[in-house]
Amino acid sequence: MQILHDKPHTKRPVIVAAATRLFAERGIDATSMRDIADAAGIREAAIYRHFANKESMSRDIFVSWYAWYGSQLRDIAKGSGTLREKLGRVARLELDAAEKHSEALLYFCENEPRFLHTLPAGVPRAGEILSTMIKEGQKRGEVRRGDAGILADMLSGALCGTALSWIRRGRPRSVRRHADLIAEACWRMIAD
Hints:
This protein is mainly α. The protein contains 9 helices and no strands.
């Protein structure tokens, strides 16, 4: 998210927006720097003023969006309320991102395995945050026993899968209107 605000008086935000859209639609490997330049309405050489190559660009975009999402998730985890209430806020975060930033969420979810291991120190990791929330819920007897990492993966997969499915179906109506249903289903997945 921050990457869209870096160097606002340059072509960088336009390049990032075009690249994010194309990476989400076609994938990183099927998108060339020429494609990005054409979509951004600039010369290909202008991209290299901001990014060394396509791989570093795609990683920078991923890290920016992941850092934003991880920070939002961390704030929810540290906030007040029961685990069930926090899970409702996590579901709303995912659905809001799906509605407001569909292309970025699609790119983010589909490229997590490619870039997760390259995240810089200090970037909040979604899996770790969800695992910690689940472990705390297990200590209080709210969440079923079992591997917290697996339960966190199941929760993350359900939320991401729901958001991606809605995006791929052409974004019919608001998905946020189903936030309570989705949060309840996720709660039942992990609740004891």
